[in-house]
Give the backbone structure.
Amino acid sequence: MTVPHPTVPPEQSGPPERTPPREGRLPEDRGRMLRRRVLTLLTIVLLIGVPAGYLLISAGQSRDSGRDKERESSVVGLQDNWPSQMKRRVYEIPIPSRAWHVAYYETSNWKTSRLYVEFTTTAGALDTFLEESGTSRAALQPGTVTVSDRDAEIVGWRFTPDAAWSGVTVTREEPRPTSDITIDLADPAFPRVYVVSATTP
């Protein structure tokens, strides 16, 4: 006896129907999806990568600056170079712009900081230097060395009696520095200047 096979109703034949999209929202195509992912990735890079880059650059600059300061502080004695503009402002030593044979040394402790400077300049520039330092050539005391023996020994200065020394001490209201200025006028056209400026931190 043959068993009849059930027949599929016509309305159920063919692929199943897709669930209609939710009302008000169209399906996202592939191009739009890729653009959205790229924008998301770019936003993450900007929010995280850029600040991290700045931190790395800043850390590198800080490290280099620290090394420069460490090198400078490890040097004992005069350096054949110009002190920075900041140092010249802090210690109020207005070195003439055309001075030569410039050298300096800085010491600092919990009580006093000192900047030692020497340079050669012209007679006219010396007058300007003294004026900008708060004194004048008339205030110089012939035969006087105002730099103390202790300060001279620290940087190896020798104020021998055969030179034509003149000196003056510029005292300023605290916390501004006090400057001991000693000048070798053996060659009046090209005086050699020695300055020790001390300030309290």
